[in-house]
Specification:
Elements: H1 3-16, H2 18-55, E1 60-67, H3 72-75, E2 86-87, H4 88-97, E3 101-103, E4 106-115, E5 121-129, H5 133-136, E6 141-144, H6 149-153, E7 158-162, H7 163-169, E8 180-185, E9 191-200, H8 204-207, E10 219-224, H9 225-231, E11 239-240, E12 242-247, H10 253-267, E13 274-280, H11 281-303, H12 305-324, H13 326-334, H14 339-381, H15 384-390, H16 399-425, H17 429-434
Parallel strand pairs: 5-10, 7-9
Antiparallel strand pairs: 1-12, 1-13, 2-11, 3-12, 4-5, 4-8, 6-9, 7-10, 8-9
Length: about 425
């Protein structure tokens, strides 16, 4: 008997007892449905988090000061001194040694006001910036350039505005590069004049959703952080516990991270109490990915237990089927059917039954994932903050999980169908023909 005949007989047997076959498949359907639903949700969650982190800048690296020993605070009264912290001048030295690195930190200093070219009042958000701040905010330069390290060190009155600000301020399609704007900082009430050196995109995830009237949207204006510190009445060397750096996307991220580690390991080699740790956004993504994978696999394994229950149901029905078809088996063996032929016939029937159940479970699992996506997007749309951060969630089915689930459902049929098939194959044809 060839494969086609086996498939035809298996389908005929399943269709002749539709309700019984469907009830037998319930365990398989529930198991596959649960696994596909869970893996789809896990894959979607991982994709959403990755997209969100990438929108904040995938080429970010943080360097932080930490103690060399966990027991340090238990044995010494003093904490950080200026020598233990990371100074801005140290970062300047780092970026000079490795030009592909940029300082991506920012220093929000509050709102400011100014009048546009038509005399209308505008409110903006002043942000102290460095040459890599836009990397952290997930935006890019559309025209001109970003704030440079020279702008910061020489305290130049330069600024970078968003494309939204350009439309708010310039009403006659003027070229903003090189234009001067005069604003009043709410922090100290003083007036400052800045020259626009660059225009950036506007990131609603970071800067907030656009107002229904674009002219009412408060946009960021990036100025050298040295000027921002003066507005904040901060002078002298700048020391921080940690800094955010970025690297040129054309540069290998691992190499950039290693350069930072080597640089600060040398700087802190003589510091007995403190050292630095370096961590990139990619490291964070890997940790999140591992956690989500572990949870997804753990829950999926629990859900797949129902496949075992379904497999037992398949074995039970196949044993009943073998009993009901004893005379058929006897006639076939009397006509010369081999044990292998009988065994393959019943294994094929069990495998087809599980495969059909697996396909139904797959369809239900994908539907559940789609439904979960619709519900999630509905909830997110009701929360403006969540909408800004997460955007629209797109469900992402796990292709490997789909393939593995279908294969596993077929293997379940083979495993639990083998014993009834072997029982049928071992029947004595004479006894089988006498069975009533």
């Amino acid at each position: 008997m060839n494969l086609f005949e086996n498939l035809k007989m298996s389908l005929s047997s399943i269709l002749s007892n539709k309700l019984r076959s469907l009830l037998t498949m319930i365990g398989i359907i529930i198991g596959i449905c649960a696994v596909i639903t869970i893996t789809t949700l896990g894959t979607t969650l991982r994709s959403t988090i990755t997209t969100t982190l990438n929108s904040l800048g995938s080429n970010l690296i943080g360097v932080f000061v930490t103690t060399r020993s966990e027991s340090y605070y238990d044995t010494i009264d003093t904490v950080y001194t200026a020598d233990d912290l990371i100074s801005y001048s140290t970062l300047e030295e780092l970026t000079q040694e490795y030009p592909e690195l940029r300082v991506a930190a920012e220093n929000p200093i509050g709102n400011a006001s100014l009048k546009n070219s038509l005399g209308k009042d505008l409110r903006i958000n002043l942000v102290g910036a460095y040459n890599g701040t836009l990397d952290q905010n997930g935006v890019r330069i559309l025209a001109g350039r970003m704030i440079s390290m020279d702008d910061v060190s020489q305290k130049k009155h330069t600024c970078v505005v968003s494309n939204i600000f350009v439309r708010q301020y310039f009403k006659n399609d003027e070229d903003p590069i090189g234009q001067k704007i005069e604003l009043i900082a709410e922090k100290n009430g003083l007036s400052y004049e800045f020259t626009i050196v660059g225009v950036s995109t506007y990131n609603s995830m970071i800067n907030g959703a656009l107002s229904s009237n674009e002219d009412d949207t408060v946009t960021p204006v990036y100025i050298p952080n040295s000027i921002a510190r003066e507005i904040n009445n901060e002078y002298g060397e700048q020391y921080e516990f940690g800094w955010v750096l970025s690297y040129d996307p054309k540069t290998d991220g691992k190499l950039a991270k290693q350069h930072i580690k080597d640089f600060f390991n040398e700087k802190y080699s003589t510091n007995k109490n403190f050292m630095t740790i370096v961590q990139s956004n990619q490291d964070t993504m890997k940790i999140i990915d591992v956690v989500i994978n572990i949870i997804t696999i753990f829950v999926a394994v629990i859900a797949s237990i129902s496949l075992i229950v379904g497999g037992v149901g398949v074995m039970n029905i196949m044993l009943v089927s073998v009993t009901e078809r004893t005379r058929e088996i006897g006639i076939r063996k009397a006509l010369g059917a081999k044990k292998t032929t009988i065994r393959i016939q019943f294994v094929t029937e069990a495998m087809i039954m599980c495969l059909i159940g697996g396909l139904i479970g797959l369809a239900l699992g994908l539907f559940n994932g789609f439904l979960a996506g619709v519900i999630a997007n509905f909830v997110i749309n009701q929360i403006p903050t969540a909408k800004q951060v997460l955007g629209t969630i797109t469900m992402v089915p796990s292709i490997p999980a789909i393939i593995i689930s279908i294969i596993f459902s077929m293997l379940t049929g083979v495993f639990f169908g083998y014993y009834p098939a072997s029982k049928a194959a071992k029947m004595n044809p004479i006894d089988a023909l006498r069975y009533d």
